[in-house]
Amino acid sequence: GEPVRVTYQLLDWDEKRLHLFGRMYHATEGYLAATSEQMAIHVDMKSRRAAPMPQSVQEVAAAIMKDHTSLEQPEQAGRVIGIRRKKEQTA
Predict the structure, then answer these.
(1) Rounded to whole angstroms, what are the CA distances from 29 to 2, 5, 6, 70?
(2) Domain span at residue 26?
(3) Which residue, among 42, 39, 47, has the nearest Cα to 19 in the 3D structure?
(4) pLDDT for 10-50, tens place per residue?
(5) What pLDDT, on a 0 to 100 scale, did the predictor assign at position 60?
(6) Cα separation of 19 and 8, whole Å?
(7) What is the pTM assigned to this prediction?
(8) What secondary structure does DSSP assign to 67-87, as a single string?
(9) By CB distance 3.0 to 4.6 Å, which of 11, 25, 54, 55 could disulfide with 19?
(10) How many Å is the maximal CA-CA distance in the chain?
């Protein structure tokens, strides 16, 4: 039930993908509570395949990227994720 504030930074993009980094802060105390990194892929629902975003969306992404280029890259971004299993464990 705590209040939060969420921000997103566009790290990179191309015609089909958005690379985003999110931060969640406690809204009143201001501390960083969580981070999240995503790669969003635009999908054409008819073909069920990755496809270029509409030109209007690409224009918005370009404008946001222009603004976000001056932001510092998050130190947490780009880390590899996975589940490390002991040799005797199977999926």
Answers:
(1) 10, 10, 14, 26
(2) 4-68
(3) 39
(4) 999 999 999 999 999 999 999 999 999 999 999 999 999 99
(5) 98
(6) 10
(7) 0.83
(8) HHTTSPPPTTTT--------T
(9) 11
(10) 51
Q: Which of 7, 27, 1, 14 is nearest to 62 (CA)?
A: 14
Whether 73 is in a domain gets the answer no
Q: Does residue 19 lie in a domain region?
A: yes
Q: Which two tokens stand for residue 69?
A: 């280029």
- Within-domain flag for 77: no
State pLDDT tens for residues 44-70.
999 999 999 999 999 999 999 999 999
Residue 91 has pLDDT above 70, yes or no: no
Q: Which residue type is seen at 23?
A: R
For residue 58, the domain's CATH number is 3.10.129.10
Residue 48 maps to a domain:
yes
